[in-house]
Design goal:
Blueprint (H helix, E strand, L loop, with lengths): L7 E3 L2 E5 L6 H14 L5 E5 L5 H14 L4 E6 L2 H10 L4 E5 L8 E8 L7 H13 L14 E2 L3 H12 L11 E5 L9 H7 L3 E5 L19 H10 L3 E5 L6 E4 L8 H13 L6 E4 L5 H8 L4 E4 L3 H11 L3 E4 L3 E3 L9 H15 L3 H6 L5 E8 L2 H14 L4 E3 L4 E5 L2 E7 L5 E8 L2 H17 L1
Parallel strand pairs: 3-4, 3-5, 4-7, 8-9, 8-10, 12-13, 12-14
Antiparallel strand pairs: 1-2, 2-6, 5-6, 10-11, 14-15, 16-20, 17-18, 18-19, 19-20
Helix pairs in contact: 1-2, 1-4, 3-5, 8-9, 8-11
Length: 450
């Protein structure tokens, strides 16, 4: 077995490459650690469609059963479905087997606590301490029970959404919706949801076999086929999901990707125009969220990067809506999780409410331009580089919550080290593309000079 340092470990969970760092032995040990950490309580397990999922699932079962945990198997379903079912079943926790937007050779364990949210950094450290010590609870024979299969995950998730939002009509007719589920977990739920919402569905890549037809991250360069489908079918809108269906990308009726950050912006504007409430998002999400909230006299709170940082702040502040600029929408009234199915529902109802084409709704959003870069940076260089930037920009407004964020009236730059890789992430947003590109080049040049 390779040492633990070959894995990527963050507050989001543990991930690695099948046949390399993510071996059955290691998976079983992590499951044993989690079962011990949760005092042998009930644990809900689900997975995405990756072909390695069956192997990973049974390795996880072995570790959980060995510590005496009752195990509920949801099998293939979206990650937000697993999170919802942890709460619904009163489980002590859950494990989502998915590497999300990573390539198909990757897989991972995302660890969920009893409230359906992921472990925070302190809880993850406690779990890793148990893992490294290797002192796992050992269940006696009579404590080991059979795994219980549960097929109610997706039906329960659908019921929860449809309890709040029913069928939609756009200008008196059914909406035609194109979808690309990347043959991931959304393939089992998204078509059914759209039909329940009264839409006509045209689809590609909805076979849940784990054979990804393109990289599963729902970014513009991976949406070519969906853009073509929207144009050829005359669809009113197109939706794309990643492999575990927590992130949502949108294509307008013109066959154009609208940008990941605009997914959350549309959902926020739809809800705030109906009721006031606090919005929570992370530091790297578009300033458009603040501009929208200001129009409706609502507050925006920014957090560190990571879904759990957003959800914990949402709980504390009793927020109406939150999310992240990667296409993650969190609407706690339905599900306290990044949930692409909830995002789809809110956007369709926004279109119906306004009787406007999707492209018009996007044009009405505040316009900003993003530039994103990643640069290699060993962990020992991170602090010195960030300190150098602080000295250079000391006269400007700085936010040190997570790395360094430099705020200007119509632009900002966020520089931080990755939670999972030895790289620096540089994100710049400005009112025009030239300003964003120029500032990003300036920061990159400083890093090369460091």
């Amino acid at each position: 077995m390779k040492p633990i340092r070959t894995l990527k470990i963050s507050i989001s969970g543990v991930r690695g490459v099948i046949g390399d760092s993510l071996s059955p032995t290691l998976l079983t040990r992590f499951a044993e650690s989690f079962g011990t950490y949760l005092n042998s309580g009930k644990i809900v397990v689900g997975r995405d469609t990756r072909t390695s999922g069956e192997m990973v699932k049974h390795a996880v079962f072995a570790g959980l059963l060995a510590t005496g945990c009752p195990v509920v198997d949801l099998d293939i379903c979206p990650v937000p479905t697993i999170q919802l079912m942890v709460r619904k079943l009163g489980a002590r926790g859950g494990i989502a087997i998915t590497a999300s937007h990573n390539p198909v050779e990757w897989n991972a364990l995302k660890l969920i606590r009893s409230d359906g949210c992921f472990l925070n950094s302190y809880q993850a450290e406690e779990l890793l301490s148990i893992y490294h010590q290797g002192d796992y609870r050992k269940a006696r024979n009579h404590e080991i029970k059979a795994v219980k299969k549960n097929s109610q995950g997706i039906p329960s998730h659908l019921e929860q959404i449809l309890k709040h939002y029913g069928p939609v009509l756009w200008k008196g007719r059914r909406l035609k919706v194109a979808i690309d589920c990347c043959n991931g977990a959304g393939s089992l739920m998204t078509p059914e949801l759209l039909q329940a919402l009264g839409c006509d569905v045209v689809s590609i890549n909805t076979t849940p076999d784990g054979i990804f037809p393109h990289p599963p991250e729902p970014v513009p360069q991976n949406l070519t086929d969906l853009c073509q489908l929207v144009k050829e079918s005359g669809a009113d809108v197109g939706f794309a999901q990643d492999a575990d269906a927590d992130r949502l990308a949108i294509v307008s009726e013109k066959g154009t990707p609208i940008g990941e950050d605009n997914t959350l912006a549309l959902a926020v504007k739809f809800l705030l125009r109906q009721e006031q409430g606090t919005v929570v998002t992370n530091l790297s999400t578009t300033q458009a969220i603040d501009d929208i909230a200001q129009v409706f006299n609502c507050r925006v709170i920014r957090t560190r990067i990571g879904e759990v940082n957003v959800t914990e702040t949402m709980k504390k502040e009793k927020a109406l809506i939150g999310g992240e600029g990667n296409g993650g929408v969190i609407f706690p009234r339905i599900n306290f999780a990044r949930d692409s199915m909830v995002g789809i529902t809110l956007v369709l109802h926004y279109m119906a409410l306004t009787a406007s084409p999707l492209s018009t709704l996007v044009e009405e959003l505040p316009r900003y331009y993003f530039v994103k870069h990643t640069l290699p940076c060993p962990s020992f260089r991170v602090r010195s580089f960030l300190n150098s930037l602080k000295e250079i920009y000391f006269r400007e407004k700085l936010d040190l919550t997570d790395g360094l964020k430099i705020l200007r009236p119509d632009s900002w730059a966020h520089i931080r080290s990755s939670n999972t890789e030895p790289i620096m992430r540089i994100v710049v947003e400005a009112r025009n593309e030239e300003t964003a590109q120029a500032w990003a080049r300036e920061i990159i040049a400083m890093m090369h000079d460091e």
